[in-house]
Give the backbone structure.
Amino acid sequence: MTNQLIEWCTSEIAGLKERHLFHMPKVHQSAVGARVIIDGKKVIQLSNNSYLGLSTHPKVKEAAIKAIEKYGVGSGAVRPISGTMDLHVECEEKLAKFKKTESCLLFQSGFTANVGVVSTLAVAGDHIISDELNHASIIDGARLSKATRAVYRHKDYGHLEELLKEARGPKSITGKILVVTDGVFSMDGDVADLKACADACEKYDAITMVDDAHATGVLGEKGRGTVDDQHMHERWSLTVGTLSKAIPVVGGYYAGPQIVKEYLIAKARPFLFSASAPPAVVAAVSACVDVLENEPQHHAKLWENTKFFKQGLKDLGFNTGNSVTPVTPVIVGDGAKAAKLSEILLENGVYAQGIYFPMVAEALSRVRTIVSASHSREDLQEALDVFKKCGKQLGLI
Ligand SMILES: Cc1ncc(COP(=O)(O)O)c(C=O)c1O
């Protein structure tokens, strides 16, 4: 081993620490839920994505256990070789029905779904146009693609239209144009306007794609997602999503036309070259979809909790940005302050993660809160009391 690597990592990490950009993950010693154990201490959890609290739902756990008993623990290979079980096919059918799309294809994660779909469908001669606040996996998919790229200002569909015009005009793009947006933006909790996006795209014959990671289980009838919420089924091309948030297992999916699914099966590299999800995972995902279809109370509770907590933070005087979903940022202005707020919240029994540059601009550094259906009113009131105490301590309110 050369010293060069060790010295380089040491110096890079020192630099990151100086800028408050180095954080070791907090280790949890309990299941995902409203209250979790971190470093032996029980705290209110406001940082996980299990929006509907389904991680410990008895039907979901039972489905996973039964799948292990019948199929064992692994799928055996990549999907095209021998890693496709009837469980995968059933799960895809259920998800397609839930999303009201012709077909669905499972990936190992939301990250690989975005990378696979974007890099496979946009090729040399094509053009990708992306919202500036899209998730890293969309950016990486675009980087891997041989298509040219452009970025429009966040939710500025006038700017998107200018870029589309430029692409079909001076840039002479005659190939496909893929316009990609997050549905719910994960740092701010605001929502893309799919109608405005589609209005622009239809004028220039562009394909529309939404990443529904934070919208599935949250927006739309029974949580069917952004396209459903905005009644855009007839006008929207493609959806990609994750199975690690409201459906709180692991995995990702494409949802859209069958012929596109078949092309992805033939060409998408994560699908072709990385093992498929294990049986317990797939069975748990299917069980979650059944719960979404049949138990609307979780969705209703999520929104009840969201309204209560968001209003509570606003009433305390915090800057909560433009969020309209269960993701509510508490914007504090710089990285050091965000780190301090997160730290003292934890000391007082609330886990809410600090979010800093490069995830957001330095001046928009924040603590991000996410409520779920599993929080009780007492959990949320206690969390608000702690926010009040810590906000006053730091002079934020
Ligand atoms: C908007 C968005 N897209 C994609 C992903 C990736 O999903 P996964 O965790 O399943 O890889 C995330 C995860 O944080 C996300 O927030």
